[in-house]
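Trying the structure run again after the queue cleared.
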Amino acid sequence: MKLPIYLDNAATTPVLPEVVEAMLPYFTELYGNSATLYSVGVAARDGVDTARETVAETMNATPDEIVFTSGGTESDNAAIWGIMQANKHRGRHMLTTPVEHHAVLEPMETLAENGFEMNFIPVDSEGRVDPDELAKCIRPDTVLVSVMHANNEIGTINPIAAIGALCRERGVYFHTDAVQTFGKVPIDVRAMKIDLLSLSAHKLHGPKGIGALFVRRGIPVIRFQEGGEQEKGRRGGTLNVPGIVGLGKAAEVVRHYMAEDTERLTFLRERLIAGLQTHLVGVRINGSRTHRLSFNVHLCIEGVDGEPILLGLDDAGICASAGSACSSGSVEPSHVLKAIGLDRETARGALRLTLGHETDAEAIDYTIKTLCGVVAGLRDLVRA
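Done. Tokens:
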């Protein structure tokens, strides 16, 4: 068995060798600015166009609806700011959930401090939105609903198609943060009636620093970044050609094994959960068991803190995460764990294990054995 065992794939993923290979010529031979007319620039633009087509095809969009960004955070910010500013004559009300990524919550909070209004759609104990509850929250002046496709901490998947249909029926724009799902869960922006969608390359074995925003054709959005007419005037700035090519190649590769990987990772996920529940007392699994990312296991372990667990796992060659259970310097639970009703005492033992392309059964069994040993040792210290 090869160490380390990497179980933090929700945070980032290793870049696939074929993605690196596809990117390399755009650093050395095809290095031109894609906005230029000479041959090296045209070759760079061809690489961008191919990637744009691939990303669009992966979600059943058209290439002209894809805007390349620096990643998921910029895509979320651009979607929220761009829609609200472009449509403030229609209304200033926006809706989101209390379990969203900070890349959605913080721009909405900033807008709320500057003449807009932000309200939360309630979520259940699994962190999931009920479309009937959303329907009660929509007002005549509501412009935007933003609901993440799947939660980055607890892995719960939302009923995006039902939410999209409701928003379309009510004449409200619908944005979804699909950073955790693009390339891993089938997405059809037409069938799901999505108006804006955010994604990031480094979550699907592509490079860091590149992402995209889907903007449905005809949607009025004020551009978030000034400085040039790139991306048909929707985002200023010289394009990151190697990164864009890497995103396109990653999308091409992962969509071919998406179904197979989902089945494999679901089996391994359940093996991990069953093993921990069998051999470890005081384990709580957070998030939905039925509407869940295939690669996500989020749990709270009674009587121990997450940080020493992580250190013990790291000493044994296992990379994991506390799942943002506590912010730096704080003993408070994350906003996600608060929203699903966990108290501070329960949340202090939070741990997120997220599987990936290289995870196998041997790694899962080693993790179960190691984690049980680490927890037992920490509990002994507490009792001593």
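Confidence is low (pLDDT under 50) at residues 325-329. Worth checking whether this holds up in the mutant runs.
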